Amino acid sequence: MRKIFWILGAVLSLLIVGFFVSAQLETNEANAAQSSDLSENLSAEVFEKPVSTQAQEYVLNFAEKRGIFPSEISFVKEVDFDALPKEVNIENVGDNNLAIYEVSYDNQGIEDKVYVVTYSVEKLSSQGDLIIAQDKRQFLNFGFSGMMNSSGFLKTATEVETNLEKGYVMVRDGSITAVSTNLEVLKNNPGNIEIIVYVNGEQVGFGNLLSTETAEVKKDYDVQSKGIVNFKAGDVISVYLKSNGEAVWGDVITILEITTTN
Fold first, then answer.
1. Which segments of 67-109 are extended strands (E)?
2. What is the mean pLDDT of residues 29-53?
3. Taking a C-beta distance cutoff of 8 angstroms, is the pair 229, 205 a contact?
4. At residue 36, does pLDDT exceed 90?
5. Per-domain residue ranges for the chain?
6. pTM of the predicted model, to two decimals?
7. Among 217, 225, 193, 218, which residue's Cα sits nearest to residue 207?
8. What secondary structure does DSSP assign to 163-182, as a single string?
9. In the list 98, 120, 202, 247, which could disulfide-bond 189, CB 3.0-4.6 Å?
10. Within its chain, how far is the Cα of 154 from the centroid?
């Protein structure tokens, strides 16, 4: 009799466990189906422009792995390669089929965003030899080692003196966005020293100005937005130092920042 009760008890326990396992599986399947339906609905709503199903799934799955659930996403938009945000910095990429998506979401009441890099279904237009794009900045070095007491052109980093025709030849279109100068006034005299930038022998309205009233190390720097002083590929950039007064100075170091976009 005890054996029969033991068997009946074991069978009853298996049935109860089986019931709970079955119920849990149904709950998980329902949640998965609900999550899938939610993702599908969100895919149609949060994407700013229609994209392929593969792209939708990749972006949403990537976000979910970062702990960003579909219900938290405000919108998803594809980023323009010609105007990448500062948070995105992609260099030396040789494939033109890439796409970047900005995912905006609610991070505990604060609007936040994350960027997803993936392959694009539609081929992007060529970005030249670099898919980059915040701006590319480079520095042109000019200077003079020793003592000076008269105006003159500064030398390049190769110790070649520039002039209206000689200088750095630009290999891309761009803008002059900054200029800085450091020098030492050895013999002071009322007046100033002006650093003048030339593009193809023409003076641009951007440079440095340093006072010579006191004998000491001087510095000046100026920054401006791109698109103001522009140049084309093939243009020549040179720098001239103009003295207004009778001071003596030396060891001139001038850096010119150029910004290119391709």
1. 73-78, 98-107
2. 57
3. yes
4. no
5. 1-45, 47-134, 136-260
6. 0.52
7. 193
8. -SS-SEEPSS-EEEEEEEEE
9. 247
10. 32
Instruction: Compute the distance between CA of residue 113 and CA of residue 28 in angstroms, rounded to an integer.
Output: 30
The CATH code for residues 136-260 is 2.60.120.40
Instruction: State yes or no: pLDDT of 146 exceeds 60.
Output: yes
Tokens 């002059």 sit on residue? 176
Task: Give tens-digit pLDDT for 165-186.
Answer: 999 999 999 999 999 999 999 9
* Phi, psi of 86, rounded to the nearest 5 degrees: -65, -25
**For residue 237, which of 142, 140, 167 has the smallest C-alpha distance?**
167
CA 242, CA 10: separation in Å to the nearest integer?
Answer: 102
Decide: residue 189, CB within 10 A, 0-12 exposed, 13-18 middle, 19+ buried.
Answer: middle
Q: What does the alpha-carbon distance between residue 140 and residue 55 come to, in Å, rounded to a whole number?
A: 42
Amino acid in position 231? F
